[in-house]
Amino acid sequence: MDTLKIVEIKEDIRSRNNEQAKDIRREMKKKKIFFLNVMSSPGSGKTTLLTELVNRLKGDYAIGVIEADLDSAVDAATIARETGVKVVQIHTAGACHITCQMSYESLCALGVDGLDLVVLENIGNLVCPAEFDTGATKNLVLLSVPEGDDKPLKYPLMFEVASAVAITKADVGAIFDFSCERAIRNVKKRNPAAPVFITSARTGEGIDALEKYVREEIGKVKNES
Question: If you average pLDDT over residues 16-20, what whole number do you get?
């Protein structure tokens, strides 16, 4: 009879990633750069919302954008064309998330010296990206109206790691069985501290408030000793 062998796991496989994330945060803090990681499911309107935000902010801040996708450069081309800011595209070769090493290499490729704000548009996925710390200063999670207001209950980790949540495509709320009140309540069950913004890039609803939030966060980084 084979002898039973018990193997005790001593180290989380993400521990090295988390250590590197701390290094990136220290470097961003030293350079006084606000590094924003934007996460959501595919089709939630990340690129559209970012285009609107970047165009509002670029007159006052130097901005760089990192676009992460399995393939193609569609979103990077859109951001570059519509905003004129510095953009780099990274392909994950099938990976459904961004590791801290990918984040580091992207920051190096972008060239962050002199920037005030770096935005990472993460892979469209409500599961894996939440599991890997990118070294970002803050995480902005998007929840679009067509997805349903129950998503914070179904994908808890994504909303637990959120620093802020933006409900997007609010202009189509009447078409879908979506309640902003229910969505906010569900977000707060997972993350009571996260502010929630109800937005529509098409109509401009809520963009002023979200812009103000980003400006305040940039200011905190700039004024941090």
Answer: 89
Average pLDDT, the chain: 93
Residues 192, 164 contacting (CB under 8 angstroms)? no
146 in a structural domain: no
Tell whether the model's pLDDT for residue 212 goes beyond 90.
Answer: yes
Asked whether residue 31 is assigned to any structural domain, the reply reads yes
Residue 133 forms part of a structural domain: yes
Q: Is the dihedral of CA 205, 209, 210, 212 positive or negative?
A: positive
Tokens of 30: 């030293």
Q: Residue 53 belongs to a domain with what CATH number?
A: 3.40.50.300
For residue 41, the 8-state DSSP code is -
Tens of pLDDT along 178-193? 999 999 999 999 999 9
Starting from the edge strand earliest in sequence, which strands make up the sheet with 86-91, in order? 86-91, 63-69, 117-124, 34-40, 138-144, 164-168, 196-198
| Overall domain count for the chain | 1
pLDDT tens track for 26-54: 999 999 999 999 999 999 999 999 999 99
Spatial separation of the C-alpha atoms in residues 172 and 121, rounded to whole Å = 23
The whole domain housing 121 covers 15-141+204-223
- Does the residue 171 lie in any domain? no
Task: Give the list of residues 6+ apart from residue 169 with CB closer than 8 angstroms, or none.
Answer: 44, 45, 144, 145, 146, 200, 202
47/139 Cα distance (integer angstroms): 15
Q: Considering the entire predicted model, what is its pTM? A: 0.92
